[in-house]
Amino acid sequence: MAELRLPLAEEIVRDLEVGAGVELTGRMITGRDAAHKWLLEDFREEVAPFMEGSVIYHCGPVVRQADDGTYEFVAAGPTTSIREEPYQAEVIEKYGLRGVIGKGGMGLQTLAGLEKSGALYLHAVGGAAQVLAQAVKKVERVFMLEEFGVPEALWVIDVEKFPVMVTMDTRRGSLHTEVEDFSKQQLERLLAAPA
Description:
Elements: E1 2-5, H1 10-15, E2 21-30, H2 33-41, H3 48-51, E3 55-57, E4 62-65, E5 71-75, H4 88-95, E6 99-102, H5 108-117, E7 120-123, H6 129-133, E8 136-143, H7 145-148, E9 154-168, H8 175-192
Parallel strand pairs: 1-2, 2-3, 3-6, 6-7
Antiparallel strand pairs: 2-9, 4-5, 7-9, 8-9
Helix pairs in contact: 4-5
């Protein structure tokens, strides 16, 4: 598994293909429904430097605050990404993202946006929230915590060897589409078989 350091150069991203396993080290930001909508309502200059060349993680973390005011991720599992389909391609382009982390894949609009902007969809393992949280070494800062609450806030985090797999690439490759097509073929075969 290759280790990639964030921020990522576009040429590195364009060299990666569906099926590649990678470990991310560096700074990323979390963002779910409220965050994506907010990011598109205006250009958020205060957040933009944390997104350029990095990845946005579809994650609603469980976070603990220490006595000194610092935060620690207790659980950091991926949430279902398809909810961000109406926003994702535009957020990628507007903020110069190089990737999206989540689970379940995304649709054709995002797939086209990945190709256009030079970004990847990276699949994180669902059900391993506490394990993934161990890769979060530091919470740098948080945006919109009071307004959105812990799960929907934008958490800027430093990660070390955060494990993901490329499941949508810049060549319009999509493991999610391949699985769906294969499943449909198998279903048709089963339905056509004599009883």
